[in-house]
Specification:
Blueprint lengths: L1 E5 L14 H12 L6 E3 L2 E8 L2 E8 L6 H12 L3 H4 E7 L7 E4 L8 H10 L5 E6 L9 H5 L5 H24 L1 H8 L9
Parallel strand pairs: 1-4, 1-5, 5-7
Antiparallel strand pairs: 2-3, 3-4, 6-7
Helix pairs in contact: 1-6, 2-4, 6-7
Length: 194
């Protein structure tokens, strides 16, 4: 069984913000696979279903970004998911251009507070993740204001495509493994500057 956790902040005021890219990919996966992600347990909104032949749990932590590890670790423990082979975390990344995605089998938090929380709670960083690029903050901007802001119309077009590709990447990780997904989805997208 895979736990697929999309990071974000709960509440209408955060809907559509740059920091909620993980939630947006979970919404895409839920729609594709007819999974009703409306159950609530352990500070998480989630739903169970299948992607291909594999059982999955689609999860949106409700702890707010900086405490994402509480939700993710509790879900891993409760559902007996091995975080180092069956967990996929999806989150925003300012070091990638808007619309870029990157699949990785592990690595550091890269300054992302949600990932810092998960790594600390799990006691390790070797779990699969998909980063969705939101671009660097403009010069002079506060980082929190930028990530909690809403993308421009141009960025929204790029991000809508990124949600589809990130969902495709999740499906490939599950069907063919993380290396296969890296080979396909880490290639540079046409028209997107790195």
């Amino acid at each position: 069984m895979y736990l697929i956790a999309g990071l974000g902040n709960p509440g209408k005021e955060y809907t559509g913000t740059r920091h909620n890219m993980g939630y947006s990919v979970i919404t895409e996966l839920a729609k594709r696979h007819d999974i009703n992600a409306s159950e609530q347990r352990m500070k998480t909104l989630y739903g169970k279903g299948r992607i291909g032949s594999e059982r999955v749990i689609l999860a949106e932590p409700l702890t707010y970004m900086n405490l994402s590890g509480e939700s993710v670790c509790s879900m891993c423990e409760y559902f007996k998911v091995d975080p180092f082979s069956e967990l996929i975390v999806i989150y925003d990344d300012i070091s990638l251009a808007p619309g870029q995605i990157r699949v990785r089998p592990g690595g550091s938090a890269g300054g992302h507070n949600g990932m810092k929380s998960i790594i600390k709670m799990l006691g390790g960083e070797q779990f699969m993740r998909i980063r969705v690029g939101i671009g660097e903050k403009p010069k002079g901007w506060d980082l929190a204001d930028y990530v909690l802001g809403r993308p421009s119309a141009e960025e929204q077009v790029l991000l809508a495509d990124a949600f589809v590709r990130a969902a495709d990447a999740v499906e490939m990780i599950i069907s063919r493994g993380v290396e296969a997904a890296m080979n396909v989805y880490n290639a540079k997208s046409a028209g997107v500057k790195e």
